[in-house]
Amino acid sequence: MSVPIIDEAAKVFADPTAYTDEPRLHAALSHLRAHAPVSLVDCPPYRPFWAITKHADIMEIERDNNLWINEPRPLLQTAQNDDIARAQLEAGMGLRTLIHMDDPQHRVVRAIGADWFRPKAMRALKVRVDELAKIYVDKMMAAGGECDFVQEVAVNYPLYVIMSLLGLPESDFPRMLKLTQELFGGDDAEFKRGNTPKNSSRYCSTSSAISTLLPRLGASTQPRIWRRRLPTPAWMANRCRTSRPRRTT
């Protein structure tokens, strides 16, 4: 396959419309797996990134924290937003979640809620999970022949399960859904907040408070270094190669 065709196939990663056209998306990924399983994608307004399309390669990347890290680009966003996010972090603002961290800090922060996800806790939660599942199945049946599955089920059920796991009252679920959509849908006009001074100030102060609080919750005896690998999507790796040497055995 020629380079132009490979380049065109790789652009699906940076084209939101490709994810609404499954035949096109899967055809492009199949071509990349066969002809260029490691592809450099250069598609403005995003900075260049590597797309990894073979499962074995992705798993190797996932396991090697010495060579592959999350920071400074754990998410695919425009170059302009990359610069904004970097400036916020350098100023002590911005939000750092688990996907922004590498070991050992990821391990420290993840340990804060680890007990909630152990098998015993999961078995205890099963009653609530089944209860929520029945609620949404009943809603679909009541809707008749069709419903908006994404809005009525997919965006609610997983989040409500997590909120139940964390012990939040059900009255807070709608607000948490709204906050989650605003956090992850900042580029979506339907979900993002207006860019007013009040909203910007509120976002920065909240993000700063969360970033300050998280290390304190579980890192009392651990070095406070932000490191850990990204749960890479099934066919894409957006990582930085480090100069740290590989581990030897």
TrEMBL record:
A GO BP annotation: cholesterol catabolic process
InterPro entries assigned: Cyt_P450_B, Cyt_P450_sf
Cofactors, names only: heme
Keywords: Heme, Iron, Metal-binding, Monooxygenase, Oxidoreductase
Molecular function per GO: cholest-4-en-3-one 26-monooxygenase activity; heme binding; iron ion binding; steroid hydroxylase activity
PANTHER family reported for this sequence: BIOTIN BIOSYNTHESIS CYTOCHROME P450, P450, PUTATIVE (EUROFUNG)-RELATED
Homology family: Belongs to the cytochrome P450 family.
Protein name: Putative cytochrome P450-terp
Native source organism of the sequence: Mycobacterium xenopi 4042
